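[Discussion] Sanity-checking designs against the backbone

I'm trying to build intuition for which residues belong where. Below is a structure token string of 311 positions. I'd appreciate it if someone posts a full sequence so I can compare it with mine line by line.
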């Protein structure tokens, strides 16, 4: 018996897919910038003792000792549960999607982005604490905020209120006056691509992207943050935070400059991924879920500088 029809009709079409992820932030970029510890119990307290400034010059024999009461403060970190999930059904399997690989990877990336949103909000939000046993919160120190129109320490006339070298110098000056060890502590700058582009353009016009201003040769470093990293010994981290809590709206945005010890990230449970068949649903789809428990707190307001920049 002769077969009829075209060759296309007589063969089953089979495709080999190469799955690529949509453009997105690939997981967390902020967690590595913080001091990390293991969370335990319903909350974690991190204690520190205040400075004792009662050292005096003794001018009289047998004079009375007047001790200074030391202050003790605890910063409190409470866990937040974050989760990301997706269904994969038999139609996805027919299309060649492996529920234990690419979908899991995409969910993990999304979980990392949510993690960063929480960490970013903690940079400028209220920090929970106990001061001498009394619970409360402490707000961001307004003295550590650099105004959008600040031109202090600028090397030349400022025509754009975005991030420029004058604001960087002012931030470092604030940290130094607060006794942050700029020589030994790694100082990071967290900002958006827009602000890093403005700073790069400004430094290029001033001739400050030369080797004598940088740790590395700028032209050999791809990307905005890598080109700037090394300027005044700073590490630049790009984070697109326009929609996150802790960032401004209405034409301005924040850039944060701080040492790693300014923030503490506590993790109660590392990300756990489960892949389970949902037998109570038609087609028995796979439910892929990733979940973790974490919290973050600002440890010292004097170590965190917030720079307001025009978009």
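Best answer:
Here's mine. Compare freely.
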């Amino acid at each position: 018996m002769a077969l009829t029809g075209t060759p296309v009709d007589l063969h089953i079409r089979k495709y080999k897919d190469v799955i690529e992820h949509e453009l997105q932030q690939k997981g967390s970029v902020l967690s590595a910038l913080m001091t990390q510890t293991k969370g335990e119990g319903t909350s974690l307290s991190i204690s520190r003792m205040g400075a004792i400034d009662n050292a005096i010059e003794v001018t009289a024999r047998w004079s009375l000792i007047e001790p200074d009461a030391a202050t003790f403060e605890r910063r409190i970190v409470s866990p937040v549960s974050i989760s990301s999930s997706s269904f994969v059904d038999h139609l996805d399997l027919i299309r060649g999607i492996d529920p234990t690989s690419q979908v899991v990877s995409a969910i993990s990336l999304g979980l990392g982005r949510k993690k960063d949103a929480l960490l970013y909000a903690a940079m400028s939000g209220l920090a929970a604490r106990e001061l001498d046993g009394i619970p409360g919160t402490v707000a961001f120190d307004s003295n550590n905020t650099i105004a959008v129109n600040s031109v202090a320490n600028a090397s030349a006339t400022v025509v754009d209120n975005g991030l420029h070298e004058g604001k960087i110098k002012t931030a470092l000056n604030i940290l130094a006056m607060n006794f942050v060890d700029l020589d030994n502590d790694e100082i990071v700058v967290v900002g958006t691509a827009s602000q890093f582009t403005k700073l790069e353009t400004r430094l290029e016009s001033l001739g400050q992207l030369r080797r004598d201003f940088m740790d590395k040769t700028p032209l050999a470093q791809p990307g905005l943050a890598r080109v700037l990293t090394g300027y005044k010994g700073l590490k630049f981290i790009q984070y697109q935070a326009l929609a996150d809590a802790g960032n401004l709206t209405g034409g301005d945005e924040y850039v944060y400059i701080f040492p790693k010890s300014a923030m503490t990230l506590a993790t109660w449970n590392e990300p756990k991924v489960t892949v389970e068949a949902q037998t109570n649903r038609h087609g028995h789809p796979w439910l892929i879920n990733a979940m973790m428990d974490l919290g973050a707190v600002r440890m010292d307001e004097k170590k965190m500088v917030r720079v307001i920049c025009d978009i």
